[in-house]
Automatic annotation (TrEMBL):
Name of the protein this chain belongs to: Uncharacterized protein
Protein localization: Secreted
Pfam families: Glyco_hydro_75
Residues in the signal sequence: 1-26
Keywords: Carbohydrate metabolism, Glycosidase, Hydrolase, Polysaccharide degradation, Secreted, Signal
Amino acid sequence: MRKLAPGLFAVSALVASVLASPAAQAAGPSASQLLAKLTSCSQISNGKYRSDTETSANIPVCGKNGAVWYKADLDVDCDGQVTSKCNKNTDPWFQPDTAFHDSKGKPLVADKLPYVVVPSASGTWDYRKFGIQGGGVVAVIYNNKVEYAVVGDTGPTNIIGEASYATAVGLGINPDPENGGSDGPVHYIYFKNSKVSPIEDHGKATSQGEALAQKFLNEN
């Protein structure tokens, strides 16, 4: 479920060490190349979203060729299978399930799989009508870094800007589900009609994401 007002916190030494590894270095289009295509918003949502319960509704969902996107914060989602990092003791809002399941029919593992939480379908915006589905590829951009994730969970109908523990780690954001996250700006680009199978294969999400990001640059 959606987390509340995480604020902006320092990145832990663990996250820093992960980002320093060669395997963590991004390929494909750069963050600046993608952001250059997001300088204006053609709003496709019928209204706007809040980033947290206490903020005003000022975040539109925007359309581009082959994608939809928005700029928000990043609240850390730890929902899914119980692990040492994600459980009811580490996360006051913990739920042992995700909207979309892995190839074995089990909830996703938030501290291992980079995934994004999409707002549940509503009159404001129905993601399903825009080619977005469970397992769809998402480019998440923060602090000059791109992390490719999948659509893994759904959240409230009025709040936007949430991603898994593993997504936060990949972006160098404090992944603590209770007091981590980032106030942003974090950009989320959902590539229409994309799907990673199996959903838990992050390598496929990354390779597909790099190709789709290049296609996005070419078409916008």
